[in-house]
Each structure stands twice: as C-alpha cells, then as structure tokens.
Amino acid sequence: MQLKLSGVGKSYGGLPVLSDISLDIASGEILCLVGPSGCGKSTLLRMIGGLELPDEGEILQVGAPPEGSLNPLTFIFQDFALLPWRSVAGNVSLALESHRAISRAERAAIIADVLSRTKLGDFANAWPKQLSGGMKQRVAIARALAVRPAVFLMDEPLSALDAQTRDILMDDLIELWSRERFTAVYVTHNLQEAVRLGHRIAILSRRPGKIRRIIGIDTPIGARTHQDPELLAIQEELWGLMREEAEAADKELTHG
Amino acid sequence: MADDDAQTRPVPYRGGGFSARPMRSVGVLTFAALVAVWELGSRYGYISNLVLPAPSEVIEAFRDLWVSGTLWEHLGASLYRLVTGWSLGTIAGIAVGFAIGLFRPVRASAGPLVAAIFPIPKIALLPLFIIWFGIGEASKVGLILFGTFFPTVIATYGGVDNVDRTLVRMGQSFGLSRWEIARKILFPGALPAILSGMRITAAIAIILIVAAELIAAQRGIGAYIQMAGSLFATDQLIAGVLVLSALGLTVSALIGALELWLLRWRA
Ligand SMILES: Nc1ncnc2c1ncn2[C@@H]1O[C@H](COP(=O)(O)OP(=O)(O)OP(=O)(O)O)[C@@H](O)[C@H]1O
Ligand SMILES: [Mg+2]
Predict the structure, then answer these.
(1) How does the average pLDDT of chain B come out, rounded?
(2) How many CA atoms lie within 13 A of A82 on its CB side?
(3) Architecture of the A66-149 domain
(4) CATH architecture of A18-60+154-256
(5) Angle at A50 between CA A177 and CA A112, to 5 degrees
(6) Residue B35 counted as domain residue
(7) Which residues on B lie below 8 Å from A128 (Cβ)?
(8) N or C: which end of chain A has fewer CB within 10 A?
C-alpha cells in the first residue's frame, strides 16, 4: 500500500499551517519529516492517519492494504498514549478487542507474540506506571504491531526518552524494519535519527509548512553507523537547511 | 584550611521535620486522656450532668440502645434511606454527568441548570418534598437522591473533561467506535473523579438524612437524637452522636476500600 499526498493544505482559524504538500510514500519506505517547531509536522501526520481532514488537496491510499492488516494506518505517539488502568497485555488487547473476527484465543496468541517480539514477555501483567519510558514506548510499538499495520505513523516516538534508551530503541526499530519492511512516516526533531532511519528526509519550512527539500539516502538502513562520513555530511547539510528556518521561526514566535 | 582544627566541624544539620508520617499511639493517648479528664470532671462535679454526661453514662446509654434493639430500629431506618437515596442519586448523577461530558447539546442545556441548582442547601427543600411526597420515606429518600445527584453530576463530567485527549486520539487511531471510547477510555479515566465525588456525596447524604430526621421522622438516628434532646437525656443524645460518627467512619472506610481496589493501577 502506498500513500499519495497532493496539494495538501490546512489552516486553523484563518492561520495557514501547511500549504501545498505533495508527497509519494512508497511501500516499505521510511520517510522522515523534519522542520522547525510549529511548522505543522504533527498536523500533517494526523491528516495522513485520518484523524483530521485537510482543507485543500487530498490524501490517497493507493492499493489495498496487505491481507490481514487490521488497522492499516497505525500511530505511535510521542507520549506513548497507554491507558494507565490497563496492564501491558491489556493495552495491547485494546487495539484488538474491537475486531469481532478475532477470537479470544487468537487475541491472546497475538498479544503473546507481539510482547515477545518487543522483549516484553515478562511484563505482560505490569501496570504502565511500573515501566521505564523505553519500555512504555515498546508497549506502544507492540500494540501497533498487533494490528499489523501497512504504515506506521510515528510522531517523535523517541523524544520523551533519555539518550541511551533512545539509542537502544532506535536499534530495535531498525531491526524491526529489517524484518518486517514496514512503511513509515517518522516525524522527528533529531537529525541524527532522521539519517539513521530515513530512506528519504523531507524538510519542511517554517509555518506555513511547505516542503523545502527532500533528501534521499542510498546507504541501506541496516548498514548505517554513527560514524559514517556520508551520513554525517547529510546531517550537516540538513542542519544548514534547518538552521535558518528554525531561527526565523523562533523570532516569529516571540512577536506573535 | 582543612587541617586547621578550629575551623573544622561537621556541617550543621538543618533538615528534617514537616513529615506527614503517622504517629498512631499519640492519637490514641490523646483520646484516652481526654476521656479520662472528662470522666473525672463529671465524677467530682466539675462538669454538670445536665450539660455533659460522664463517658460511663454514655456507654451505659449505648448499651441500653444496643440491648433493647432500638439501635437497630433507628439505624436500620436511617441506613435504608441513606442507601436507597445515595445509590439512586449516584447512578442518576453518573449517567447525566457522563451525558454532559460526551454530548455538547446536553452540556449546553443541562450544564447551566446543574450549576444553578447545585449551590442550594438541599435541606431547604425538605418542606417542599414533604408537600410533594408526604411525610413518609419518599420525601427523605428523595431529598438524599436530590442532594447527592448534583455533586455527582459535576464530579463526573469534570472527570470526563480531564481525561487526556491524546488517549481519545489513540482510541480513534485504532479504529475504536465512539461507544468503545466512552466505555474503555473516558469512563475509567473519569473513575478517580467519580470516586472522590462519592466520598463527598456520602458525607452530604449523612448530613441530609440526620437533618431530615431531626425535623420530621419517628424513626432514625436523627429522630432518636431529637427525642433524647427534648427529654434532656444528654447521655442518649451523645450515644446517638457516637453512632453517627461510627457511621461516617464506616462509610468512608468502605469507599476507601473501593478506591484501593478500583484504582489499584495508581499504587
Ligand atoms: N487543533 C488545533 N487548533 C488550533 N491550532 C492548532 C491545532 N493543532 C495545531 N495547531 C497549530 O498549528 C501549528 C502547527 O502545529 P503542529 O503541532 O502540527 O506543529 P509541529 O510541527 O508538530 O510542531 P512541534 O515540532 O513543536 O511538534 C502550530 O502553530 C499550532 O499552534
Ligand atoms: Mg509535533
């Protein structure tokens, strides 16, 4: 399943937030979205996921979602969005309960499977409150895996975590992608994450967000390292593009 | 510097204090001392029996109440009114509060009405309720129902309003229906607020039932206290008050246990 955005625009109460966004996201591709604060990245992601309607343009899903996908467009949120009154297994279960076709036994099997894939097998009965930030986000990833998405929509999934946990989870995500070859739109402020994970990186300008540049990275995701000079050069280039936008956006915010 | 003995001393301690750690034994001791002073004061004539009976007399009055079975008659009557009125008021309040939290037209129509009626001291409506429902049980149950309904409504929709909206977004992003979001996300999310509302309405219900029974009842703890007062039987009067205190403590312990169990995910 592919996604096709053409001429997408959005404003909130007369304030244009996004304008003329056109993008094609191929199956199995990870597209990273970077841009200054407030440029509309989260808004764009919500529109792609059907949680909000664009004012202009259209967002199309091309081709049928893969067989057995329960929730083709699945979010992973920055603040995890776990229900504190449900255990780890209960949180995963929430995503499956509304699907009548899945029996109780099947549901339990799916939960056990995704929890073991995210190394949470021993924590099925723990409350979210008892988990570290990294484990909470792994629960959210397990919940997403349970509905077999065609596209992952991730809004700064690692930014609430400390640096070490972030590295570990990044490795987990890379490993996951190598196995499952999912499609993803990945919003981040962290350029290092963008060059580690993105097949392409789209840089948005400050509000109203437009696509300023799209940079492709050829190195296979599995073969990328922290020290790769080519990646560092791209990161430098991205920072150059981002810097002016971020500075200008920063000034804009201070005088309203 | 460091080896200059005159200048070397431990860092002065200035922490500690301001702790909320319980000191249970002190509470018991205070209580026992107070009762002892009161008993001695009564025995040696410093406290007139008409003003305040000795603790031993209160215990005697309580024993009478217990043995003769009047305690159960009065307590039973009060409990019946409390439980029915409070349960009905709470159930109706949760339903209406939830509807206000979920549906904007309901909020727009019922919200201001609730806000207007909420501050009325409900006991002022007892005469009206007696005219409407008669002097019997219905007017008292109705009063408690009415008195617990509004705070419950307010606690419930406040709780629903306070549920983190990203959780609602999350539910939508997994394709949950509106009904599922209400049942699996908004209701459990509002439960802590609903339970603390219950704590308040239980206290309100006890106040209302005693007030109503003081004014117009033949049976009930309030009626018993009223009778004792008109006979200047202060020992019975205080015994009745002690029963109320025990009732309040029991109710609050029950709700505490309910909270502990329903909100165990918070521990
Ligand atoms: N529901 C809303 N109502 C009104 N304005 C909104 C709403 N959601 C977002 N905005 C505004 O739209 C703009 C873009 O918001 P958005 O959250 O998409 O930015 P972002 O790029 O994700 O920023 P950040 O990097 O800080 O997460 C901001 O100015 C924000 O204030
Ligand atoms: Mg954002």
Answers:
(1) 92
(2) 29
(3) 3-Layer(aba) Sandwich (3.40)
(4) 3-Layer(aba) Sandwich (3.40)
(5) 45
(6) no
(7) 265
(8) C
